[in-house]
Design a protein that fits this description.
The chain is an alpha+beta fold. It has 2 domains: 103 residues, Protein of unknown function (DUF541), domain 1 (Translation Initiation Factor IF3, 2-Layer Sandwich); 105 residues, Protein of unknown function (DUF541), domain 2 (Alpha-Beta Plaits). It is built from 4 helices and 11 strands, in the order H-E-E-H-E-E-H-E-E-H-E-E-E-E-E. Strands 2, 3, 4, 5, 6 and 8 form a 6-stranded antiparallel beta sheet that branches. It has a 3-stranded antiparallel beta sheet with strand order 1-11-7. A two-stranded antiparallel sheet has the order 9-10. A hairpin with a 4-residue loop joins strand 3 and strand 4. Helix 2 packs antiparallel against helix 3. The chain is elongated and about 85 Å long.
């Protein structure tokens, strides 16, 4: 009987922590929702890439012509109030220019191609149209679409994340109400929204006539700053 008593006592002591562990592993009652927000804003900055491509039988002539065009363009950009720190000249690329003769199956060197590339940050979009005109007048023959962004981008990204988080809670409350429950504390927030990239838009100078003559205008439109968050809340009885 004594052995039986100690055996029963040992079994009971083993069952107590097992029962406590089992109760601890009951998953919490939660609800996970996805919140979304979108902020629209008018861009106030742009980055535009331009280039010069010159072909000439003589390498020295091609380099000189390209350099002259770049210098003339830089002077025009400075006249528009664009500081040198906002203009990056990305060096020169030189490559031979061959001509293929189908009859003989041979190629002949007919000259050289010199490329000069520039990247300009414009912080006053009213200057964007005149800048493109100055570039083409100087001889720049390659202009990429302007990449539009906002100087308040980081601030607006944070605002969008806050709006998306509030949207997630409202969705959680709507779901919880349907099952006669409430929304409690936050357990997890995943706010890994994609980084907002500048929007490419072709900068076309529009002409309009009035009594004073021709007016030039650049209409940047709007850019979108989205945010998406995933939030897990406790459900309350």
């Amino acid at each position: 009987m004594r052995h039986f008593f100690f055996g029963s006592l040992a079994a009971s002591l083993i069952l107590i922590p097992l029962m406590a562990t089992a109760s601890d592993t009951i998953p919490p009652r939660t609800v996970t929702t996805t919140g979304e927000a979108l902020i629209r804003t008018v861009p106030d900055e742009a980055t535009i890439s331009m280039g010069v491509e010159i072909r000439d039988p003589e390498l020295a002539t091609a380099r000189e012509r390209a350099g002259t065009i770049v210098e003339e363009f830089l002077a025009g950009a400075r006249n528009l109030g664009i500081p040198d720190k906002d203009i990056a000249t990305l060096g020169a690329r030189i490559q031979p220019d061959y001509e293929w003769n189908r009859e003989t199956g041979e190629r002949r060197l007919r000259g050289y191609i010199v490329n000069r590339e520039m990247q300009i940050t414009v912080k006053d979009l009213d200057v964007l149209g005149p800048l493109i005109e100055a570039a083409t007048a100087a001889g720049v023959n390659q202009v990429q679409p302007a990449m539009l962004t906002s100087s308040r981008r980081k601030e607006l990204e944070r605002q969008a994340l806050a709006d998306a988080t509030r949207d997630a809670r409202q969705r959680a409350e709507a779901a919880a109400t349907a099952v006669n429950a409430g929304v409690g504390a936050v357990r997890k927030i995943d706010a890994s929204s994609p980084r907002v990239q500048p929007v490419a838009r072709r900068a076309e100078v529009m002409m309009a006539s009035d009594s004073a003559g021709a007016n030039r205008g650049w209409q940047p439109g709007e850019i979108n700053i989205p945010a998406t968050v995933h939030v897990t809340f406790d459900l309350e009885p």
